């Protein structure tokens, strides 16, 4: 019975074991994450909407356009959700927060000597 329990515990450890490379990879992805992988933003033209319908110039019959600012969130199935720490949708705004890049860069800088040693060892 004890051997069976030890075996199950060993299997469990294998399943949750994180290799140092996995941790470094996560910090690298955080440090070099690009906000444009998560949102698109800018300005675009859109038709002005009146009280009941879109507005049209009476003389030219062309739509009246205006430049508006926009922020579009990318679909969550296409992004690395582990790097986002917060997404919020308010009444008048959208917020997205990524994991702290400075902390990730500090971690990588502190451990860069280990990265260099590991790279040299893997090349040998």
Order of helices and strands: HHEEEEHH
Q: What is the count of DSSP helices, taking H or I runs of 4+ residues? A: 4
Structural class, please? alpha+beta
Mass-distribution shape:
elongated
**How many beta-strand segments?**
4
Kindly, what is the distance between the CA atoms of the first and last residues, rounded to a whole number of angstroms? 44 Å
Strand order in the sheet with the most strands: 1-2
How would you state the average pLDDT, rounded?
84
Largest sheet: 2 strands, antiparallel
Radius of gyration: 25 Å
Proportion of beta-strand residues: 15-25%
Helix content: 25-40%
Could you describe the 3D structure shown?
The protein has 124 residues and is of the alpha+beta class. It has four helices and four strands; from the N terminus they run ααββββαα. The strands form two sheets. Strands 1-2 form a two-stranded antiparallel sheet. α2 packs across α3 (101-110). The protein is elongated, with a radius of gyration of 25 Å.
Topology:
Layout: H1 2-16, H2 20-31, E1 39-47, E2 65-73, E3 84-89, E4 94-98, H3 101-110, H4 112-123
Antiparallel strand pairs: 1-2, 3-4
Helix pairs in contact: 2-3
């Amino acid at each position: 019975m004890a051997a069976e329990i030890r075996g199950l515990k060993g299997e469990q450890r294998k399943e949750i074991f994180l290799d140092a490379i996995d941790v470094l990879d996560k910090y690298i992805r955080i440090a070099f994450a690009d906000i444009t992988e998560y949102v698109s933003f800018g300005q675009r033209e859109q038709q002005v909407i009146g009280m009941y319908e879109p507005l049209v110039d009476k003389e030219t019959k062309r739509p009246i356009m205006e430049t508006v600012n926009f922020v579009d969130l990318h679909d969550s199935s296409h992004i690395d959700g582990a790097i986002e720490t917060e997404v919020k949708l308010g009444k008048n705004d959208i917020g997205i927060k990524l994991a702290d890049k400075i902390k990730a860069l500090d971690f990588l800088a502190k451990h860069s000597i280990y990265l260099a040693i590991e790279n040299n060892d893997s090349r040998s």
